[in-house]
Amino acid sequence: MSKPPIDESRPGADGVLRVEVPAQQRKSPRQARSIALVDALKQTARQILERHGRDELTTLRLAEEAGVATSSIYEYFPTMEALIAAIYEDVRKEVRTELLTRIAALPADTTLYDGIVLTIEVGLNLYLQKIRFDPEFSVRSTHYDELVRLDVVKAREELSGSATEALMCRFADEVLVRDKDKAHFLVFHTLLALSRAILLERPSYLTEKDTVQMLARMVHALLTTAE
Questions:
Q1: Which of 3, 20, 125, 136 has its CA 20 to 30 A from that of 108?
Q2: How much is the average pLDDT of 175-185?
Q3: What digits encode the pLDDT tens for the residues 139-169?
Q4: What pLDDT was estimated at residue 194?
Q5: Neighbours of 171 (CB within 10 A)
Q6: Neighbour-count burial for 199-209, b at 16+ CB within 10 Å, e otherwise
Q7: Are strands 6-10 and 17-20 parallel, antiparallel or unpaired?
Q8: Measured between alpha carbons, how far is residue 9 from residues 15, 21, 131, 154, 182 in Å?
Q9: Cβ atoms of residues 161 and 112 within 8 Å
Q10: How confident is the model at residue 15 (pLDDT cuts 50, 70, 90)?
Q11: Cα-based distances in Å from 132 to 52, 76, 139
Q12: Structure confidence at residue 8 (pLDDT)
């Protein structure tokens, strides 16, 4: 298996900061048959990961259970990490879409605080799933995502909209800050940065109930403190 490529982007000790780019899919399928093949590979690999764990996801096992030749796997995924990255990206998009739908469908008597708790719980659970898929990939990709957030490297893809926007729209009557754009910026980056710091430095916090409550109280205070 080849190592992930190195992206030389900013000065470091020798004049260049070397950024390890997470492994990624070699190419996108274009024909119906190849699209079906890639979908089957991701579905089968995800089942192996969820039922048996990362150690059981090998090229030989995947080829056997998906009913394909190993060469077909390498045609699209140069490493197992590249396949895991593709699976996690699908999961991330699924979770994001589901969360936005759930926020919009919350009952009329739901409070802003309840919506914040829901959003944080979903986000932390997503990071837990990322760790379960592959702890090493989880660390590497999270480091890279933080470089993207800080604009050290450019994002490969931008997702429009966010749970923060959805919350502020759904509970507009409870959001008391005057500068909504500033509040959105602070909440969005605070939750991203803290969640990623937890994953990288204190992963045990992801499963502790008071983590959600502490983060929720902080965000709620930020949005409801009148100027």
A1: 125
A2: 93
A3: 999 998 888 887 765 555 444 458 999 999 9
A4: 94
A5: 20
A6: beeeeebbeee
A7: antiparallel
A8: 10, 11, 27, 10, 29
A9: no
A10: low
A11: 10, 23, 12
A12: 41
Residue 164 neighbours by CB under 8 Å, 6+ apart: 119, 184, 187, 188, 191
Tens digit of each residue's pLDDT (9 = 90 or more) over 96-118? 999 999 999 999 999 999 999 99
Q: How far apart are CA 85 and CA 54, in angstroms?
A: 13
- Residues whose CB falls within 8 Å of the CB of residue 133, separated by 6 or more in sequence, listed in order: 49, 54, 84, 87, 88
* pLDDT attached to residue 21: 74
Q: How many CB atoms lie within 10 A of CB 94?
A: 11
Domain locations in the chain as residue ranges: 85-224
Residues forming a β-bridge with 18: 8
Q: Which long-range contacts (CB under 8 A, 24 or more apart) does 208-215 make?
A: 211/124, 212/117, 212/120, 212/121, 212/124, 213/117, 215/120, 215/191
- For residue 196, give both structure tokens: 């990623």
pTM of the model: 0.84
